[in-house]
Amino acid sequence: MNSWPPVETTVPDRHPDAPAPDTELPEHYAHCFGCGDSVEHGLRLRATAGEGMTVRSRFTVTTEHQGAPGLAHGGLLACAFDEALGSAVGHLLRRPAVTAKLETDFLRPVPVGTTLVIDAHLDGIAGRKVYVSAEGTVEGTTAVRARALFITVDLKHFVDHGRPEDIRRVAENPALLGRSIDVNP
Ligand SMILES: CCCCCCCCCCCCCC(=O)SCCNC(=O)CCNC(=O)[C@H](O)C(C)(C)COP(=O)(O)OP(=O)(O)OC[C@H]1O[C@@H](n2cnc3c(N)ncnc32)[C@H](O)[C@@H]1OP(=O)(O)O
To answer: Where would you find this protein in the cell (predicted)?
Structure first.
């Protein structure tokens, strides 16, 4: 296995305004496929801040999330990890960041009706590069592991690249963004 993080990093402190351990984290965007309550068949991840540089997320697999009969689709499992890892970066550093690279190891199938518990850990930071990893367990057995590189960006990134009507809807109704995001930092 390659060394991780792949470059020299430092481990940052939690942001002073990061949610305290055991705090339930809000959805970051109502229309997010990973965590938004407005997305009918979305993943609806729920997350809790952990100790140190950790966040625990939970993804309950439903019949809408199947790939093979009765089993979660691998692409949706990768999506769940993207969300869980992004949540760790966003909430612990309180800086906007996007996924640049995501790698997943699928070790065991994840059945419909089970809850995947994803423990994400912020491993290190080098400039704008943030390295995070996570392990997902079903009833105590490791099913999926993932590693990712996130890159911190300015809020301008989302304004420049997002669809204007969606940006406008958020500007008119900031409640669509989770309580934890300051749209006027
Ligand atoms: C705030 C409070 C709470 C918030 C909660 C939020 C929860 C959120 C949950 C959300 C969850 C869902 C999250 C989502 O779904 S995010 C959506 C999916 N991701 C994207 O759309 C990102 C698309 N990519 C880009 O926009 C650009 O490529 C970015 C911005 C990433 C970089 O373009 P930019 O022009 O700005 O920078 P740069 O190119 O100089 O690169 C900078 C450095 O990075 C290195 N590099 C780049 N790519 C790679 C790579 N693939 N492997 C290895 N290294 C890579 C690069 O070599 C350079 O290194 P160095 O030369 O400096 O050493």
So the answer is: Cell projection, Ruffle membrane; Cytoplasm; Membrane
